[in-house]
Structure formats: C-alpha cells, structure tokens
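Ligand-bound model needed. S-adenosyl-L-homocysteine.
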Amino acid sequence: MEIGQKIELTITDVAAGGDGVGRYDGMAVFVPHTCRGERVLVRLVRITSACAYGTLCSVIEPSPERRVDFCAAAGLCGGCDFAHMAYTEQLAVKQKIVADALTRIGGFSDVPVAETLAAPRPERYRNKMVFPLGTDARGQAIGGFYAPGSHHLVPLSDCRQGDRAAALWLSEILSFLNETKTSVYDEKTRRGLARRVFVRLAEGTREAMVVLTATSAKLRETEKLVERLLAVPTGYTLKSIILNIHKEPDNLLLGKKNLVLYGRDYIIDTLGDLRFHISPHSFYQINAPQTSILYETALSLAGLSGKETILDLYCGIGTISLFAAKKAARVIGVEVVPQAIEDARENARRNRITNAEFIVGRAEEVAPRLAEQNERLSVVFLDPPRKGADRKAIEAILQMAPKKIVYISCNPATLARDAKILAEGGYKVEQAIPADMFPNTSHVETVVLLQRQNT
Ligand code: SAH
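Prediction:
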C-alpha cells in the first residue's frame, strides 16, 4: 500500500471518532463519511505500521442508511461527521462505540449496554453556537465553522444543528463589522480585533445571550451594534450582549474579561421545575430536551431515598446537584470554574434549595480533602470533561467508598479507562446507557452505574 493509491474497500464498522473502517491486505483502513456495509473507493492519505487512513473518492455500493440531503456543507465543515448517516443508524453506531470502548479499553465484556436514547429533536438542538470569524479574499468579515482538522473557515449562512436565531445574529454582527470597517482577528499574524461570535439560548425561557469576543475593548459604535442586535426578530429575547476581551493566542472560547454592552451578564433557563442562572464562562449542556432525559436517567440509576449524602464532582452550575438535592439529605458540588460555582450558589438560592453546598476547586484537590475529612458519602455523580476524571479524584472516591457511583461521560474511551480503575477498586459496572446528546456527530454521552461490591 502506498500514499495516493486508490483502493476498493468494504466498510465493516464505524470507529470512535466517527471514521468508517474496512480491511485491506489485513490492515485496518479508516475513512471518514462512510457507513457500515458500504463498498467505497478510497484514496490512501496516511499509512502507519498499524493502520491506514483514506479519503472517500466515491461510494460504489451505498448503504441503505446513507443520506445525502442533511446539509450543503457536509464534508466541508468539520462539524457534523455523521451528517451522511440515517438517524437510527447513528444511534446503533453509538451504542456499538460505547460497547467497544468498555470491552477494549475497560475489559468489560459482559456489561449490558442499552440502546442509545434518541434525542427528542435530532436537529436544531444546539443551544450554544460558536462561530469563529475571518475574512474572505476581498477582506470582508465572514463567520462560520472550521473545515475538518484545520482552521480553514467555511462560511455558513445557517447551520441545521442550531436554532436559526444564532445564524441571524451572526449575520447582523458581520454586517456591522463590515459597515464600521472593524478589523477581524487573524490567527497567523495575531492582528485584528473581532474574533468570535458566541450565542447561547435558553429554550425554557426563550432568553438569549450574544457574546462578541475581541482582542481589545476598542470596538467602536457599540450602541449601534446593540441596537441592531436587538432589532433582529428571532423568537428569543436578547437579555445579554457582552464584549469579551480575548487577547491570548489560545484556542479557548473566551478570554477572562466580560464587558456588558446591554442587559445582564447572565441568562436564565428552566429545566424541569428548576431555574438556572448561566454566566458566559459556565458550562451548560448544549442539548436542552436531551439534558432532561440524561439527568432523569442518572438520577433514577442513583435510586435516591432522601437520606443520602451526595458528591457531585465536576458540577458546573449545579444542575445535577440541585435535582439530586430534592431527593437526598445533602449534596456537595465541586467545580473548577469560579463563575460556575457562583451560578450554582445563586441557583440553589433561586430554587430555595438549602441542602446543597458548593466548593470551587479542582476535583483532584477537593476530593482528596473530603476523603481526609472522612466525609461519608452514599452516592457520587461524576461528570468530567472529555479527558475524564483525574486519577487522584478517583482514588479519593475509592477511599470514601460510596455505595453507588453514577458516571456521566462525553467520551467513551476515558469512561472505560476510569471505570476500569473503579472496578479494580471494588466496584461493579452494572450497566451503561448511551444518550444521544450530539445528533449528526460521532460524539456520544453515556451514563454508567457502578455499585460497591465489598461492603
Ligand atoms: N455536571 C455539569 C457539568 C459537566 S461538564 C452539567 O451537567 O452541566 C464538566 C465540568 O467540569 C465543567 O463545568 C468544567 O468546568 C469542570 N471541570 C473541568 N476540569 C475540572 C477539574 N479538574 N475539577 C473540577 N471541575 C472541572
């Protein structure tokens, strides 16, 4: 096999990360944008001693699960790597991705993995959209998404993953930038002002927040920008317009400093019977209808009686903590982002919940401290970012020996790795329930119940 060679391949599986996989000459070949069961023509682009990577040239025999009409930018934009797959097939593939990770990485071959919980709304579900800004050949401001694996900007006038409101505000900001001749940040030269547009929508209350990130506060005619954004008819009430100062040449979404151009520096959303205060820097689940299902699943696995002391590690703005607090004696939430902890405390007050306390700090530092204080826990909710839980946090949990651990994960690989450590520490992985939080992408959320064995 050599680079540039064209080969015919039958796709037999879809791997974590979303690529289809077929075998050629005994070697696994990974090809994006393919479906299981398809016969495809592939051009090899990279070959290692273990596997090869190809790009799709043409589909020779398409799978009945292939769909072609999801988005005009499919394949160009790096956003939806499952855009080419029928929704039911996406769900089946995700169940297999979770089962494979648990088996291959965790060594759990007999854990029941449920069918993936379908999203109530498999498109236009994102309540958060982030559009990087750039310039076209004529120097005009454009906004959109990056092409797969690059920082090449694909301009978009709309995106089927998010509400139209986000694209409408993006378009208004682009006209404003062009009319006021405001410069756009260039990653290479690190010059220019406007950098990104970030829109967050609260489906429960129809409140919205628009954040423009810029390298300095020198943005001119901000009153005009506010006026124009407020005039866009979107079906949402714009409650917060923020200029975020982001100078550093990093890939973080936001810089530290927020200047409120209009309204407040937060929005309110409702989930179930609770109201949540959400600041720009705080994490908030991006698929609202599916979040309710995810939390209900996690809480039902915990099987709370009202007597429990609960630790919610990686608690964000305290969403799981507060739903759990209503069914338990006491909840401790831990989170590293200070604004998120302020939101969590405010959310407890707002919802008149008095049995939840929140600690700002790293899980790997706070959990060992709680263990040292002999904190007696019945249940731990663990909802870390993609890189998984820190080993020190896991060891502290083992030391505190809760009866149940409910692990909520957005990355099956780190979930399987962490579950293995917990299993070696005396826990049994009872079941895994994948939930589709991110339709049309290869990402999958999983809820896992672990029970302590050595009582
Ligand atoms: N359970 C929450 C948040 C989950 S996202 C919800 O459902 O909304 C993961 C959270 O972990 C984020 O809020 C992130 O800021 C936080 N986080 C990341 N690294 C952390 C660490 N080392 N210690 C504590 N929290 C961390």
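DSSP finds nine helices and 21 strands in the chain.
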